[in-house]
């Protein structure tokens, strides 16, 4: 049975993106929600390139109420949630 895995990038966003890509090896559906914006650094750009290549859906969520509603819906839909 295919699981829905949600990775929430909160504190260590580079590592969260890396983990999200690694979880695709399990053959489960992976989604990444980046909470609170993302800095523009070479490490982030590199990981986003890999995320795009792996065709992993991701969302950049700000601090708005609608973003938190989206995050809550994603958490409820997921079988497994990682907060990194």
Write the SSE topology:
Layout (H helix, E strand, L loop, with lengths): L3 E6 L3 H11 L5 E7 L6 H12 L4 E4 L3 H13 L2 E4 L1
Parallel strand pairs: 1-2, 1-4, 2-3
Describe the structure.
By secondary structure, this protein is α/β, with parallel strands linked by helices. It has a single domain (4-83), classed as Rossmann fold (3-Layer(aba) Sandwich), CATH 3.40.50. The protein contains 3 helices and 4 strands. It has helices at 13-23, 42-53, 65-77, and strands at residues 4-9, 29-35, 58-61, 80-83. The chain has a 4-stranded parallel β-sheet, sandwiched between helices. Helix 1 (13-23) packs parallel to helix 2. The chain is flat. The protein starts with a strand and ends with a strand. The mean pLDDT is 95.
Which features does this protein show?
84 residues; alpha/beta; Rossmann fold; four-stranded parallel sheet
Brief write-up:
It is built from three helices and four strands. With 84 residues, it is of the alpha/beta class.
Shape descriptor: flat
Provide the gyration radius in Å: 12 Å
Give the topology string: H per helix, E per strand.
Answer: EHEHEHE
Largest sheet: 4 strands, parallel
N- to C-terminal distance: 25 Å
Strand content: 25-35%
Architecture per CATH nomenclature, i.e. the level-2 architecture = 3-Layer(aba) Sandwich
The level-1 CATH class? Alpha Beta
Given as residue ranges, the uncertain stretches (5+ residues, pLDDT < 50) are: none
